[in-house]
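Objective 1b. Sequence-to-structure analysis of Anthocyanidin 3-O-glucosyltransferase.
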Amino acid sequence: MENVRESHRQQRKGCTLLLFPLPLQGHINPMLWLANILYSKGFSIIIIHTKFNSPNPSKYPHFTFHSIPDGLLEGEASTADVVDLVTLLNVKCIRSFRDSLVKLLLEVKEEPIACLITDADWYFTQAVADSLKLPRLVLRTSNISFFLVFGALPLLLEKGYIPIKDSQLEEPVVELPPLKVKDLPEIKTRNVEDFYHLVAGLVNESKASSGLIWNSFEDLERDALSKLYQDFPIPIFTIGPFYKYFSGTSSSSLTEDQSCISWLDKKAPNSVIYVSFGSIAEINEAEFLEIAWGLANSNQPFLWVVRPRLVRGSEWIEPLPDGFQERLGGIGHIVKWAPQKEVQAHPAIGGFWTHNGWNSTLESICEGVPMICHPISGDQKVNARYVTDIWRIGLHLEKKLERGEIERAVKRLIVEADGQEMRKRIMSLKEKVEICLKQGGSSYDSLERLTDYILLLQPLRSH
Ligand code: UDX
């Protein structure tokens, strides 16, 4: 067995993979983690990336970076309307991406290119890869349960669940338990048809690909995975959680404020609520002030990430009343960007108030930190429903943000029995994460299958 493994490792040494992340922080991180995982298995890695939100090559001296023009005009290079941005990128990058693939296929001779791995949102790349006879694998950075909601979009439209009507918000989506109508993705965008088109492209071109890779694990999403096998009869690899393969790796292109850790070092175990809404979400000034007062009134220590321009119309924390931070007397620490994985793993953290982006949700599961869920858009509402109703490892702030509700939610999670039960359940999931990554575990085995599969793709390419 060891001999077979060694011979496969030698084969991988002569093999290059092209990876193309979508240039949004929540998508770049998992793609770069995947790149590191595959590099550790012996493959050479070329990262193709846009100029917009380009990754920092100095953090990855072991990869080759290849920049392509994205054609975005000044006003277009913005995450204010993500559907608009992704739709534009899928049109504007076709030519430059194709040209760069042709060039790379000609140039990279000593280590043949086995396949292309792109984010599922880069749906245009399937046609380009097909035209060059290059197998394309897809990385989907959300979880499987949410992808199935995207897959069900035609049905949701046909049955009238979407567009969402205010009168139906609390009704169940009987075809997709435990979801309610209000959990379905409705993304604010200039033209809703663009959203439907993007989802159709993403789903159909994923189905046409040579395989789907997930930053999730079998034990967490067993039912969704069975359904995925039925609906997507292509090779499927659940090899997550990616970031747990390495200790101390940060792929963040933003500067992480390390003062968080020394601040946490002075706090009691399980006492601090960590608050962060990821890299894209925005809130308004009234919501910002409710959060500030809710946290302050809870009297629990809090570490709060306020990204620059998180609050619409403000640069940073100017809307806070004068002297707010001083009056907290050391119970609150506000930063622009935190080393989130280190923060989550710190013994002082007792809970995470999150927008339920998939990376944040998964990181919370990996570190055994129960959640307060305040989903804002996209996949976040579905993730929050699974956190509260299926895995039962968090509580939902479903109504308009209000300081009294926030204060109660923080206390419930950090000090009350309810929160302790959630902590126990999430600790048992954390143990499952550790098992799935060990030899013989589901993610470990799936990664072995993936690396063997890529080696099978390579001869297809060279004929
Ligand atoms: C986006 C979408 O909004 C999300 O719904 C989707 O699931 C993935 O893409 P984002 O909103 O940024 O992502 O959220 P999330 O998926 O949680 O990713 C944020 C990442 O930034 C996490 O890996 C988190 O650890 C990191 N982060 C966040 C930091 O490193 N520091 C911070 O201060 C905040």
